[in-house]
Amino acid sequence: MNRLAGKRVCITGASAGIGAACARAFAERGAHLLLSARRIERVQALAEELAAAHGIEADAAALDVTDREAVQRYVNGLEAEGKLPDILVNNAGKARGLDLFHEADIDDWEEMIDTNVKGLLYMSRAILPHMVARDSGHVIHIGSIAGRWVYPKGHVYNATKFAVYALTEGMNMDLVGTKVRVSSVDPGLTETEFSVVRFHGDEERAKQVYAGTRPLTGEDVADAVVYVANTPEHVDILQLVMMPTAQRHAMIVHREEG
Ligand code: 8X3
């Protein structure tokens, strides 16, 4: 049963990867889209393509979720247009660097904390009061298995995803008695621009992360997000942890030779 047709879905970081795949998956089910990313051209093109293909409304906005005032302005604008979302997908996130803690670049840390934690907080804090007032809504975080298991050189990235884990639980607690739900979809190895960004554009090093294995795709993760979003209102999934079959733990990955 499709409960998503006509719903309005706000997706951050929607220009590529899991965010763009979520936009496609929700559009296929007839949901209206509020897509945002720092790269307006890409998100604008995606919104136009999906609106034409599926007969839905799709709006695109340039938004840096780390800019607290810009986030509030964006949500105020949605309210003024009568376009507050039924579903918020907090997808914008990134890893920067994979270095020993005592050698890591503090600028990388700032970027991860600002995007993965503060960005998610700003978006949620701006939109949740409207959901509570309507007694309806669903916030879905894109977490990670990195928020379940720490791995060597993961430290601050792990810490940001452990923060997402804590926030899913904490936000749910504070929403008891309302019909507003908070969920997290937590993927393992997923081949997107993730590793290229993590390694500051080093495509060769990024490829090695997925070498000899069949990783998840953005579409695989989007399937799970849509599943979570489509559950009936009395069902509250806190965490959906998923990995490629070749992976059984952050540190356990089967790789074929050659
Ligand atoms: C992405 C998954 O654990 O490979 O968040 O960094 S991981």
Structural overview:
- The chain has 258 residues and is α/β, with parallel strands linked by helices.
- It has one domain: NAD(P)-binding Rossmann-like Domain (Rossmann fold).
- The protein is 45% helix and 16% strand.
- It is built from eight helices and nine strands.
- It has helices spanning 17-28, 40-54, 68-80, 106-134, 155-174, 194-198, 203-210, 218-230, and strands at 8-11, 32-37, 58-62, 87-90, 137-142, 180-187, 239-242, 247-249, 252-253.
- The strands form two sheets. It has a seven-stranded parallel β-sheet with strand order 3-2-1-4-5-6-7, sandwiched between helices.
- α1 (17-28) links the parallel β1 and β2 (32-37).
- The N and C termini lie far apart (43 Å).
- Bound molecules: 2-hydroxyethylsulfonic acid.
- The site of 2-hydroxyethylsulfonic acid has 7 residues, from loops.
- 2-hydroxyethylsulfonic acid (8X3) is lined by residues 95, 144-146, 188-189, 250.
Features:
about 260 residues, alpha/beta, Rossmann fold, seven-stranded parallel β-sheet, two-stranded antiparallel ribbon, about 45% helix, binds 2-hydroxyethylsulfonic acid
